[in-house]
Write a structure and sequence with these properties.
Pathogenesis-related Protein p14a, two-stranded antiparallel sheet, 11 strands, 19% helix
Length: 250
């Protein structure tokens, strides 16, 4: 099993942190191979304020844009995913949660732990996950140590929502449990890291965003290219909620 501890430095912030283990949901699966959660309840507890939402979304889209892909979707913040991520963070489990939501479909997830506040922790998480890019080989379809990075830049992932919780006790790979550890969870839809698939189609700069037409089939009535990313027609100001019909519990 993968065991590691990484030191991240960002704008003067130094913190010890761990990214999620590779034996969990981050592992590649074939499309359609996911369990079904029998419940169909959308959580309403949202933890992120607008400035943190903007930091998370802007970071993802900046990095996605830099990849120079023909088929890279713009990411928006989604309240449903944020609620699911918050629920999982509050369970204080070092691992991954649901792979499939009965209303949404397949859900991808990145997890991070460290210390400090949510903003500092989110910045450390984003830099840590994306830092795996240094070990990524675009010619390969395995890259087992890069799954946080590839989820961040998976071409047809178009929505993200994150949550956090300070856990009194968090059992990780370290010899002793971590006390008062910050646990950050980001959920993604559509899920990435499908077996035998690459995260995006890399092209020359002049061809970026040239293959948007079918990217949002079944989701939106159309798509357009905006600053190197494919934008689906139905989102408003970078925020939204995935279409989801469900029956609230009595």
């Amino acid at each position: 099993m993968l065991k590691y501890s990484v030191i991240f430095v960002f704008l003067g912030l130094v913190g010890k942190s761990l990214s999620a283990p590779d034996w969990s949901q981050a592992a590649r699966v074939k499309r359609g191979e996911s369990g079904v959660n029998p419940t169909c309840q959308v959580p309403s507890k949202i933890s992120a304020d607008d400035s943190i939402v903007k930091t998370i979304v802007d970071f993802h889209n900046e990095k996605r844009r830099e990849e120079k892909a023909s088929n890279m979707a713009e990411l928006i913040w989604d309240e449903t995913l944020a609620g699911l991520a918050q629920e999982w963070a509050e369970q204080c489990i070092w691992g991954h949660g649901m792979k499939y939501h009965a209303c949404i479909g397949d859900v991808g997830q990145n997890v991070h732990t460290g210390y400090g506040g949510y903003r500092e922790g989110a910045i450390a998480a984003l830099n840590g996950w994306f830092g795996e890019r240094a070990d990524y080989n675009h010619e390969s379809t395995t890259n087992p140590l890069c799954l946080h990075y590839t989820q961040m830049v998976w071409h047809d992932t178009y929505a993200i929502g994150c949550g956090y919780h300070t856990c009194p006790i968090l059992n990780t790979f370290e010899e002793k449990p971590k006390k008062n550890a910050l646990l950050i969870v980001c959920d993604y839809h559509r899920k990435g890291n499908w077996e035998h698939e690459k995260p995006f189609v890399k092209v020359a700069s002049e061809e970026t965003c040239s293959d948007c037409a079918k990217l949002f089939d079944g989701v939106s009535s159309g798509a357009k290219c905006s600053d190197g990313l494919c934008v689906y027609a139905d989102h408003i100001n970078g925020r939204g909620q995935l279409r989801c019909n469900y029956n609230s519990p009595k």
